[in-house]
Amino acid sequence: MATVSLYTDGGARGNPGPSAAGCVIIAEDGTETTIGQYLGEITNNQAEYQALLLGIDRVMADFDAPNTELTVYMDSELIVKQIKGDYRVKHPELKPLYDSVIDMIKNFAMVQFVHIPREKNKKADALVNLTLDNHDTRSDSTNT
Asked: For residues 123 and 98, what is the distance between their CA atoms, to the nearest angstrom?
């Protein structure tokens, strides 16, 4: 049985605004995979869900999900509580994202969601900001 840790973060500059996802996947042997992806103009909470989906999708691609125990670490208390069933998903734009997460995690032997403080999610947060900075730089260079 493989054990994998997934750290995800999503952020938007403005709400909604330009947004990005950051994921850090750590295999039990310490191997680390990082992902930063620009997401377009969406809300912060949508970016958090998109980051989670991106990370889970990559873990499913790289590991045998039925034989993998996945621990997901996020600094979004809202998303963690929604996934755990503590909070209802009220926003109609978040519901399909939530449903996709629930469908995907059924593939794993075990999945645990852990809310962590932002300072414990620095790598994923840095990927979000780097991705947004790089996107802003490209955008700014084309605007005259």
From this structure: 24
